[in-house]
Amino acid sequence: MARPAPLSGFPEWLPAERIVENHVLDTVREVFELHGFAGIETRAVEPVEQLLSKGETSKEIYLLSRLQASEDARSDKQLGLHFDLTVPFARYVVENAGKLTFPFKRYQIQKVWRGERPQDGRFREFVQADIDVVGQGSLPYHFEVELPLIMAEALGRLSEIGLPPVKVLVNNRKVAEGFYRGLGLDAVEETLRAVDKLDKIGPSAVATAIQQDAGATDAQARACLDLAAISGSDAAVLDDVLALAQRTGVSHPLLDEGIAELRSLLVAAARRAPGTIVADMKIARGLDYYTGSVYETVLVGHEELGSICSGGRYDTLASDGKQSYPGVGLSIGVTRVVSRLLSANLTSATRSVPTAVLVAVLDEAHRESSDVVAEQLRARGISAETSPDAAKFGKQIRYADRRGIPFVWFPAGSDADGNSTRHQVKDIRSGEQVDAEPAAWSPPPADLRPGVLPAVQD
Amino acid sequence: MARPAPLSGFPEWLPAERIVENHVLDTVREVFELHGFAGIETRAVEPVEQLLSKGETSKEIYLLSRLQASEDARSDKQLGLHFDLTVPFARYVVENAGKLTFPFKRYQIQKVWRGERPQDGRFREFVQADIDVVGQGSLPYHFEVELPLIMAEALGRLSEIGLPPVKVLVNNRKVAEGFYRGLGLDAVEETLRAVDKLDKIGPSAVATAIQQDAGATDAQARACLDLAAISGSDAAVLDDVLALAQRTGVSHPLLDEGIAELRSLLVAAARRAPGTIVADMKIARGLDYYTGSVYETVLVGHEELGSICSGGRYDTLASDGKQSYPGVGLSIGVTRVVSRLLSANLTSATRSVPTAVLVAVLDEAHRESSDVVAEQLRARGISAETSPDAAKFGKQIRYADRRGIPFVWFPAGSDADGNSTRHQVKDIRSGEQVDAEPAAWSPPPADLRPGVLPAVQD
């Protein structure tokens, strides 16, 4: 084949980059499991009518067809690749409701596909890492407090490998809806959609949109913008909202409920993740199924990348007709995070292979004795491989060096004069070479596996 | 939504089943990394012409189209979902050759898709776990010895969770081709394709096929069947091949080369995995790109399931015109293995959630003190969750019981008479309840994570 070119929007990593991605995946999985979330995977495909039933993402769906569909295949349902993990999860919950225990807490780490135009941080194939809690019939509010804190903990752990701090921006649809209705504005969806564009089109265009699409007066539109301008990381921000409501004569039970919910989130966040959670009244989220808390997350210093972890509370995503399954969840855009870690040189792996020790081969007739050394090391959890060929030792050391393998092992044998020699292991970084026993020697813990470290900034 | 039905051929696991699958995936990944294989992932899609260029699998490909393809999309390449991990890996190697070091050893664990008719053990979406070694220009034979032994080690480790023993069946295309050519039969592909059907259609139909498709005489066809009938797990089997060659007057340098290669594999296997590797002269593999060793693997007692780990040596899969990239690799059919572990009740998980401790909540006003206990446990690597509600303790214990969570924690507080109480933890299996400190107590190691154990057979 001719040298193939990459496909735009379908990122692939080199081995050392994949070590960074795996570290991110292992870290978030560990945090999710520490919090009691069970891992599931759903199939990559859903019937298209299932995918189309949710929101405005239909244009992004990849449809499937079989290259040589036969008669029996014509009756197959039209399938598409899932574009997120929330819609398949909702289907999984309804399909398996009789076999699950509620509230059901699950994490799910999988690829998703969207036929969007690729941009920086926006891909056609990418990995998401989701957590959701779903109840049967009802779901207590406290999960809306816990879940963003779990995501803040998972992303916070990645500071060890160079991820900048995150800010989780939270809002509550009840605050916005209660405020709009208290103002006399009942076109809530239209108003939220306009406010959601604030960062893109600016306040005066948003005001115009609220007036045109939601039928607001100039004063109502200004009040909506005033609300959207409120943000802050402690409960005092809610006093700003209350003051605005008083000034504009707004009062609505939904507003009170939303403020009480936001307050308990901010109080818990002040203890568990001080400074990480920011109440931001302009966060509205594009999708229309959120009914309570909504979340977006920015990387400090990389805000232009967009949200790296979003979600919210949904009361109506899943239902089987008899029973509703309200839930709350967030989704990390793993590929967006990893691509930024790599492209901005924030993080790197200490080597491109898991191997800690290359066992040298004197000549092909002695390959087995080298294999035995490697087996003894592996039996104690030390990644080891036998040299691919019996080239001169200098060449075998260069093999290790090119991959970042820190140690080369020289098996016991006999030298050119027929004198027996002992096992020796060489740290090829320092050049230090010492006697060692294959059944006892271990590398320093830091060399056992590839490290993933913050890159040294110039 | 109405209760959705599963899609045939697209398996999904319940949480406790997914714990079994994750254990299998973690185990094989650990073995691959111990042997120095670097993990990569390729995108799920390839240009269709790339997928079509290899063998006879074209009919099984799923093509992609965008639901609302716009003008700019018309010029996009036609994409399809990959049907294995070998073809994408070959493309990855050629695409990134300048950034990789050779021989390049990689593992790859991903889903693949085939539009085949679903059957027991045969799916439309399934997970494969592959290892391959690829050289630039050349690749030493010893990798053809090492790779099946690594797979035997990975699958052998799964005996801990109830996987039956495996037999890796090996053959060498050079033996068959050398023997056929020595017989005067130059239609090697046709003969191999006929022999490959031996188990399905029986010897007399194979003999007829060899005569019709490969133009063989009756005597030649019988000799091919005699060769295919030879199998055994030690090097003595090669004496049978040599005796057959002598009896039928066959001599060919390729036959000698193949026998020498097989011999060194069987000698190494006798030391490293006695009884696991079986030379079987009827293994031919459907795909036409293998040029040396070929491998299939059966689960002892479940032979009708078909091969659970197959592969071989390929000299010509990847090339960029200037350079060839010969390789050898095997692929575990993870979904086939896991579905059998589950459907035959060979294995089960001890619980359906990672949680080791449920921290009870006295009342909602005291939720925070329960959260603090859970945080202290998690800080020491113990999976803990706070009870979703402040129901009666009996109900909270049933919450734990239904999920298999072994311990329930009762935080310090005060009882109904206002006397202060100490932290206590209850093993809900034995009923034993003891005082404990959140900063010091740990569960027994066996309870720390969900266990994956061989099921007790009746």
UniProtKB/TrEMBL annotation, chains A, B:
Every Aminoacyl-transfer RNA synthetases class-II family profile domain range: 20-354
EC number(s) recorded for this UniProt protein: 6.1.1.21
One cellular component term from this protein's GO annotations in UniProt: cytoplasm
Reaction it catalyzes: tRNA(His) + L-histidine + ATP = L-histidyl-tRNA(His) + AMP + diphosphate + H(+)
Pfam families xref list: HGTP_anticodon, tRNA-synt_His
Keywords, sorted A to Z: Aminoacyl-tRNA synthetase, ATP-binding, Cytoplasm, Ligase, Nucleotide-binding, Protein biosynthesis
Top-level taxon: Bacteria
One biological process term in Gene Ontology: histidyl-tRNA aminoacylation
Record region (Disordered): 416-458
Residues given in the record as L-histidine binding sites: D84, L85, T86, R114, Q128, D132, R285, Y289, Y290
GO MF annotation: an example: histidine-tRNA ligase activity
UniProt family annotation: Belongs to the class-II aminoacyl-tRNA synthetase family.
Subunit and partners: Homodimer.
Protein known as: Histidine--tRNA ligase
Organism: Rarobacter faecitabidus
